[in-house]
């Protein structure tokens, strides 16, 4: 049990923290209108195409930006763990030693080191989100909780949604659906809109790609479908993983049968602009050289979903240039 400060007007709920790795203002891709998207760190899934690799681990992680580094070496002097080595090839971060204390980030005069993921209180996040309330009101926007998977910070997410609701702010929950049904249901009840991912309808492939059982996700999706809560379902279209017509047909059919509350279905085209993020985290991105999809391929998949009876269906994202036939 946390000890409370003496000031009695500060509630324990207000002191709840979540590991936030980004707060993106003026976002237009995470729900309707102009939004602020709060990205929480940690995800139960491990999709090889993940566009936010810095959101996969729930722990803070140090990254180094080579283009900013001026080799001042102040970071090396302050590190209590001796976790940094500057070599001609770049900064080596011993991730077994580094505890993300942030001393090197503070010491660097060129902002070349950054700890991704900071503990933020509900109060801090609410205060930041409310700065743009006037934009939410004018555009029918609001705040979106995303990640990673916001459900991994359950108490924080619940309290954040409650507080934003009190302020009259529309709240969307962007979830992978791979969390316990109990937590999922509480979270859904607090949100105004659910952005729900359905990626792969083959059980074996789903487990292989994401590390989570498909049935767990589908159970949550079915229950969500019974609530009447507005839902946008989203499928990342990943070459070789999710982009076959049969997969989209099965997803669309599942939605048609189980989710009458669907407001729109989104197909999100793969892109590899996250390569640098993987490099900075010293992780391998297996899809770094994967070409983009074409407009024609995205249009084709959209038609498949429409043919199964879904509407409206949108697709978005960068596509590769096609030569004229
Ligand atoms: S569910 Fe989303 S955030 Fe989680 S690993 Fe997959 S792509 Fe990344
Ligand atoms: S975050 Fe702390 S432990 Fe990690 S490299 Fe920097 S100073 Fe060392």
| Helix/strand order | EEEHEEHEEHHEHEHEHHEHEHHE
For the biggest sheet, the summary is: 9 strands, mixed
Helix count, DSSP H or I runs of 4 or more residues: 11
Record the strand order, biggest sheet.
Answer: 7-1-2-8-9-10-11-12-13
Overall 3D shape: globular
- Given as residue ranges, the uncertain stretches (5+ residues, pLDDT < 50) are 1-8
Named at the architecture level, the CATH assignment of the largest domain is Alpha-Beta Barrel
What name does CATH use for the topology of the largest domain? TIM Barrel
How big a fraction of the residues is strand? 15-25%
The N- to C-terminal Cα distance equals 67 Å
- Supply the helix-strand structural class: alpha/beta
Summarize model confidence as the mean pLDDT. Answer: 95
Number of strands: 13
Ligand roster: iron/sulfur cluster
Structural domains: how many: 2
Radius of gyration: 21 Å
How much helix, percentage-wise, in residues? 25-40%
Q: CATH H level of the largest domain: which superfamily?
A: Aldolase class I
CATH C-level class of the largest domain is Alpha Beta
């Amino acid at each position: 049990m946390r000890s409370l400060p003496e000031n009695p007007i500060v509630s324990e709920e207000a002191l709840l923290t979540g590991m936030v790795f980004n707060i993106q203002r003026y976002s237009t891709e995470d729900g309707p209108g102009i939004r602020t998207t709060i990205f929480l760190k940690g995800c139960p899934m491990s999709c090889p195409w993940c566009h936010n690799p810095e959101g996969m681990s729930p722990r803070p992680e140090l990254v180094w930006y080579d283009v900013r580094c001026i080799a001042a070496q102040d970071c090396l002097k302050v590190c209590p763990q001796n976790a940094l080595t500057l070599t001609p090839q770049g900064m080596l971060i011993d991730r077994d030693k580094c505890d993300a204390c942030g001393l090197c980030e503070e010491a660097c005069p060129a902002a070349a080191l950054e700890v991704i993921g900071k503990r933020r209180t509900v109060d801090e996040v609410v205060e930041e989100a409310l700065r743009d309330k006037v934009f939410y009101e004018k555009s029918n926007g609001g705040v979106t909780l995303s990640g990673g998977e916001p459900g991994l910070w359950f108490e924080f997410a619940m309290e954040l949604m409650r507080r934003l609701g009190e302020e009259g702010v529309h709240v969307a929950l962007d979830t992978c659906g791979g969390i316990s049904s109990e937590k999922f249901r509480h979270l859904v009840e607090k949100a105004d809109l659910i952005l729900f991912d359905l990626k792969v309808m083959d059980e074996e492939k789903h487990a292989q790609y994401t590390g989570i059982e498909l049935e767990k996700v589908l159970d949550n999706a079915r229950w969500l479908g019974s609530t009447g809560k507005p839902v946008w379902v989203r499928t990342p279209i990943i070459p070789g993983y999710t982009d076959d017509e049969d997969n989209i047909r099965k997803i669309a059919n599942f939605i048609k049968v189980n989710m009458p509350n669907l407001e729109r279905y989104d197909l999100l085209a793969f892109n590899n602009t996250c390569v640098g993020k993987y490099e900075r985290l010293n992780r391998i991105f297996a899809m770094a050289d994967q070409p983009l999809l074409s407009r024609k391929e995205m249009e084709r998949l959209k038609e498949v979903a429409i043919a199964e009876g879904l509407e409206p269906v949108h697709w978005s994202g960068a596509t590769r240039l096609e030569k004229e036939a």
